[in-house]
Amino acid sequence: MASRDGRSARSTAPRRGRPPAEQGVLPVLTRAVREVELAVQRGKVGPTVRTTFQAVALLVREERARVQAAETSEGRRADQLKKIDVVATGLARTAARDGSLLALLTEGAELQDGTRALLREMR
Length: 123
Fold this sequence. Notes:
By secondary structure, the protein is mainly α.
């Protein structure tokens, strides 16, 4: 396909798509928290949302412990902990909007059906 001046309509410049996705579990958790937040805002807190909420909470705890135990620079650790705090804040804000989710955060809370499978998938 040629443009008016006879050159190809396709650009030879490199594509400027999205930057490479951040590695690790944090981007997955961030997306999941956003989905839960939207569901709570719409008032649609069903078993799937509860399962996702619980899985994210458990993974946030794991990730925080992993980062704190990792032998990395203080700057990198601080950066990772800030990102974890963003996810944790989203969870807290969501739980404040729907108090029934708070019970899923306790240490002795039973796992919702499907939480283990979702944990494996998110990892």
